[in-house]
Amino acid sequence: MTKNIQPPDYDLDKIKFATDEPTFKRAVGLYESGKVTQFEEGIRSYSAVVLGTKPYRVFVEARRYDYGHCECYLGQKNILCKHMVAVAIYAVKNGKPLKKEEKELIGRPVCSGKTGELTAEELAAVKKSITLAMRYIKPYRGPSRTWFAYQDSLSEGCRRLTSIVSKLPASQQTAKLLVNLLLRLDRKLQTGGIDDSDGTVGGFMSEVVDILEKFAQLEPKCIKTFKKLAGKETCFGWEEPLVQLYEVSR
How many domains does the chain contain in total? Predict the structure, then answer.
């Protein structure tokens, strides 16, 4: 019988999108195979023994799942490990099974292969989710020692956006949504103080362009939305394939 656990400040989406894909998948494996044992709730914290190559005592905070410690090799080096993530998942789920969509993680943006429009309610929900994800793609004004944490924020934002755009059906409506998303990201890169020196945001944008090209194959009316990009000067010319499609269609 599961106990009533005071929920942490983070949710499963935070864990999923802020953790690198291999670590998250390994943590899910530990959680689902019952390797998180002796789970206890402390004062704004959680502890457990996670069974790995040997039993590891693990501690994570309720405020941030990546704050804590583990007896494993990575944990001793203050690196977030699969054991800490597994305990955080347990704290969020209270030991209950994960649903398929909760553990599903899309590594890179892909075309859904479907066609159709969103309802007004669905469109509003997608726009709200995009706005939330965009908050993680923010300007960098901190000292050099915080640069890696900043890059983690960019990665989380792009992972959140990846989950959204990969589920969209192809239509003129959704193509317009993606074109506007690309233009918003472009403005952030050009004038918003984004430090994308590792190419996280730029790489995501290029993959969204690929999705739009596939949208145009599935639903040719999508090409009309590319007119907005004609004559634009973007940060690295990502719009060129889409503008070419529009010019050829005229």
Answer: 2
The tens digit of pLDDT for each residue in 138-182 reads: 999 888 778 888 999 999 999 999 999 999 999 999 999 999 999
In this structure, are 244 and 133 located in the same domain? yes
Sequence-ordered list of residues with C-beta below 8 angstroms from that of 36, at least 6 positions apart, any chain: 30, 48, 50, 86, 87, 89, 90, 95
DSSP tag of 222:
G
Q: Are residues 65 and 145 in the same domain?
A: no
Same domain as 151, residue 89: no
Distance from the first to the final alpha carbon of the chain = 65
Q: How far is CA 50 from CA 22, 53, 55, 86, 88, in A?
A: 18, 10, 6, 8, 12
| Full strand arrangement of the beta sheet holding 68-70 | 36-41, 45-51, 55-61, 68-70
Q: For residue range 77-112, what is the model confidence (pLDDT) as tens digits?
A: 999 999 999 999 999 999 999 999 999 888 899 999
Element of type H or E holding 207: helix 200-218
CA distance 163 to 151: 19
Q: Which of 38, 68, 103 is the last residue of a domain?
A: 103
